[in-house]
Design brief:
7-stranded mixed sheet, alpha/beta, elongated, Maf protein, 7 helices, about 200 residues
Length: about 200
């Protein structure tokens, strides 16, 4: 069986993370707008796991030819406030202002579904520190529009490459939208069970 996954996300970063880990990827976009969903919980891990579950349910029935399907959702958390994707430039500006010169948490929830339809949910947390940035640097970034579609209004790798004073504690791929350190062993186990059905069910 080909080591491939069905990724329920249009994110090129998530696709790249899986491909760099040796997986073939078919990418589909869930028919869901997470910005319109309001959950009755204040728990960021529960929120991202629920949204990942909803996305996973949207990307096709069990029986697809891949080892598993994967869907994910990411938020940033500052002083208990949950920051998703900014609505506009002003919203992105407020998000960044709340994170500059201090640390915040980035949480990614993941839903993994095998071909039988069995699902596993988990979330992973990483701490990110953003140092001081000049007002000019922030304005140039906001003018670029690169904040659009990104949890917290920024992408870790792009901002580091652009010289931002960023430091990530824990798994940086969690901040990038897919916690690879935790995900890969799960996919490997499902793949092995598919190849040798005499083994016990996962996980």
């Amino acid at each position: 069986m080909t080591r491939s996954v069905l990724l329920g996300s249009a994110s090129p970063r998530r696709r790249s993370l899986l491909e760099q880990a040796g997986w073939c990827v078919e990418q589909v976009s869930p028919a869901i707008d997470d910005g319109l969903i309001h959950l009755k919980t204040d728990s960021p891990p529960h929120i991202v796991e629920a949204l990942a579950w909803f996305k996973g349910a949207q990307i096709g029935p069990p029986g697809h030819p891949h080892v598993a399907s994967v869907a994910a959702d990411t938020v940033c958390v500052v002083d208990g406030a949950i920051l998703g994707k900014p609505r506009d430039r002003e919203h992105a500006s407020r998000m960044l202002a709340s994170m500059i010169g201090r640390h915040h948490l980035t949480i990614t929830g993941v839903c993994v579904q095998d071909r039988s339809g069995e699902r596993l949910l988990f979330s992973d947390v990483a701490r990110v520190e953003i140092g001081d940035l000049s007002a000019d640097a922030v304005d140039r970034y906001l003018d670029s529009g690169e904040w659009s579609g990104k949890a917290g209004g920024y992408n870790l790798v792009d901002r580091i490459e652009d010289g931002w004073p960023l430091a990530c504690i824990d798994d940086p791929t969690t901040v990038m939208g897919l916690p690879i350190r935790r995900l890969l062993p799960i996919l490997d186990e499902i793949d092995q069970l598919n190849r040798d059905p005499r083994q016990e069910e996962w996980p």
